[in-house]
Design brief:
Helix content is 43%, strand content 13%. It starts with a strand and ends with a helix. It is of the alpha/beta class. The chain is globular, with a radius of gyration of 26 Å.
Length: 758
Amino acid sequence: MQTSVIGYPRIGASRELKFAVEKYFKGEIGSEELSRIGADLRSAHWNVQKVHGVDFIPSNDFSFYDHVLDTAVLFNLIPDRYRALELDSLDTYFAMARGYQGPRGDVKPLAMKKWFNTNYHYLVPEIDDTAQIQVAGSKIFDEFEEAKRQQLETKPVLVGAFTLLKLAKFTGGKRVEHVIADIVRAYQDVLNRLGKLGARWIQLDEPYLVTDLTPEDIRLFTEIYRPLLSAKNGVKVLVQTYFGDVRDCYETLQTLPFDSIGLDFVEGTQTLSLLREYGFAEDKTLFAGITNGRNIWTSRYAAALQTIQDIQRYARNVVIGTSCSLLHVPYSVKRETRLSEEYTRHFAFAEEKLRELSELKRILSSVSPFETEWYKRNEERFAGVRCVPDESVRARIAALTERDFTRLPALPERKAIQKNNLNLPLLPTTTIGSFPQTRDVRVNRAAYKKKSISETEYKQFILDKIQQCIRHQEEIGLDVLVHGEFERNDMVEYFGECLEGFIFTDNGWVQSYGTRCVKPPIIWGDVRRSRPITIEYAVYANHLTDKPVKGMLTGPVTILNWSFPREDILPKEIAFQIAFAIRDEVLDLEAHGIDIIQIDEAALREKLPLRKSDWHEQYLSWAIPAFRLVHSGVKPETQIHTHMCYSQFGDMIREIDAMDADVITFEASRSNLEIVETLRESGFQTNVGPGVYDIHSPRIPDVEELKQAIRRMVRAIGSEGLWVNPDCGLKTRGEAETWASLHNLVQAAAEVRAEFQD
């Protein structure tokens, strides 16, 4: 039995890539040094897989920013506005990723969206009418040869043609049917060049196949791959799927001349049933995703072996591997020296998943699999009770009734009450919550953690930062203020640290986008609030100003979705546990005089099932109620805000309206405010603030640009109940660009407001 890995984490075990790329952005290192660091990381990643005996090691899974962007550049999908900057190839690449504002021009970055139902973000390729689709880059070939020089035969990985076209945005008159021939030729060129270099395999990632496919989609897939596979030049083609099952196209995959098909047996709920019903082509190899690439819990070998045994009844040639790329989990448990073995024995990060594949391979080759040391040691991990239930938490959930999910009075009545209570101007301005986490913030937090400064000293530092932040917001004229969240390392990790039931890693970093890394908490046991979380700083900020100050919280669904969840109870139960904990905080904030409370649900759409038929039963039936449970107990005067970002919201806009918040702010700028048309067409009732500028780019929007965005929103949905704000929190930005951008935002809102008053 052979083993395969779909992809490996690329940021570095100590986030070397993140820091190197950020140094490059600052001009502290050049492209040669950046390239050297990238090469060192690739070599380390290949070799750790080699050590664990992986038979199919991926190459071209490394990226300086995003693998979808890499694919776009490979095929010459570089819009003219970036070419016009006349930058070198690397800086053109980064301009597409983050935008550019400098002596050569001013351009926004490509749109950024969630990679299916994960917390990874990809850059949306654009295909305009001038696009000449052809192989223009060399990265996939260079990295294959780089591995070859290290005596490593790799399996180059590339986003498949179908998924690329489905994710791309057509910006002109061209449509998919106009570029099929070009895309086929381009992929054939890749196969031809790899064949000449001696590659035996290529992995074409087609995760779009696990979504709801129409007959037209299946025809498109066939129209692409039938000619593409007719010219493989000796390279075997693995079509790799993940994040679900391929129920809509399973038979089609069997009939096309792929050499191998990769299927997900972890999240693919119907994958095994498809094998049973239709069998598996004898001339193909099945790459079976057995090890969970999206969660950190140790695999139970008994269950994995049973699945493999079931697979082998229908497939003659089987390779076992990860269910998806290991991009979505941290590097290694070995780096968690402060967590006791009581915890770590239950975890498998990326390197440990390699070990699991190696051990499963050995077990399967044994005459007596269940007598091997690896099997017995694994079974020991699952003996006994991992954590003791909190009966008080479970009793609280058991006592829930419909009233706990219903806020009274209804939204129209609340709008009138809150308008009189808050007395805000037309087009009120605010921010999403966080302000820049400057070096002094990071230094003081680290010093406090190391106990080199006292709790009193640290708190005073935070209070001073809050005071400065409030004063500066007042100076530029924002209408609704925030305290800045300087005490928070992360919007989820911070709350997890303040709740029972979570544990935390020191080095469990996962890439979210580009250089942005997150360290998801691990939900270990039942969740409850044992003490106030945000009250002290929120109340302090509120006393510093006569303007309203928002209490800032993270919602239960986002906390769940941005953590590594336990797998022994249902997500619904975890969400309700967290919801009760945040509800307690909401009611405390209200009792302390906070009139506006924002409960961020940035990740609400993130874990929405990829098939619409599963949306309500598997997710929305508890996700929306979990949010409503958080705020249903507040007074009519208390205004509840929420925030969502980097997802396509149009197809679930009614469900978002049903969250029954008073104000919802959306990320909207990178998608060119497309959501405002959806809001207009749907008759959306909740007051809204579509983000008017992109905080994930360092560029500063000028007043005219912001005025145009505000006017467009007003034309689409009217000025009543419309808020003006950035599209997300400002934590990752520098202070100078932040205050300059917000100054322009306030001025733009004031000028548009005056147009209505005149």
